[in-house]
Amino acid sequence: MKCPFCGGDDTRVIDSRPADDNSSIRRRRACDVCGKRFTTYEKVETIPLIVIKKDNTREQYDREKIEGGIIRACHKRPVSAKQISQLADEIENEVYSFGEKEINSTRIGEIVMTKLKDLDQVAYVRFASVYREFKDVNTFMDELKKILDK
């Protein structure tokens, strides 16, 4: 493992433990060249997953797109970076648990909305308004009524 500070090849593992999500290993490393410490995460490599978009084009699954959508929906909301990362982990685990090589983007979007609704209702409405392409105020109000009626 290369040191991110000096680029040296001589690093050693000081400590290993399961990460918070229990699906990866957190390793604390030290560089023998510069002496600085850094953390790495080891995760099981999964099969490539293809996402079928609304226009029937296909592209490789990209976790960063999901995180980006969640971050935009949670902008100026009381949601921490850790909560966003945990939410993305939950979504990713659920998507991969289907065991399929291809998945529709609509299915992923519905999972995101379900999880966001439990995390922050304002973030949920923001995400839903973009995802479901609300055309006017009435469709927006219909979605708000669904939340308020529960």
Which ranges are low-confidence, i.e. pLDDT below 50, for 5 or more consecutive residues? none
Number of helices: 5
Query: Helix share of residues?
Result: 40-55%
Query: What integer is the average pLDDT?
Result: 89
End-to-end separation in angstroms reads: 51 Å
- Outline: elongated
Radius of gyration: 20 Å
Order of helices and strands: EEEEEHHEHHH
Percent range for β-strand residues = 15-25%
E-strand count: 6
Main sheet properties: 3 strands, antiparallel
The secondary structure category is alpha+beta
Strand order of the largest sheet: 1-2-3
Can you characterise this structure?
With 150 residues, this protein is α+β, with helices and mostly antiparallel strands. 44% of the residues lie in helices and 21% in strands. It is built from 5 helices and 6 strands, in the order βββββααβααα. It has a 3-stranded antiparallel β-sheet with strand order 1-2-3, with no helix packed on it. Strand 1 and strand 2 form a beta hairpin. Helix 1 crosses helix 2, helix 3 packs antiparallel against helix 4 and helix 4 runs antiparallel to helix 5. The termini are far apart. The model has no long low-confidence stretch (mean pLDDT 89).
Task: Give a quick set of tags describing it.
5 helices, 3-stranded mixed beta sheet, 21% strand, alpha+beta, 150 residues, elongated, 3-stranded antiparallel beta sheet
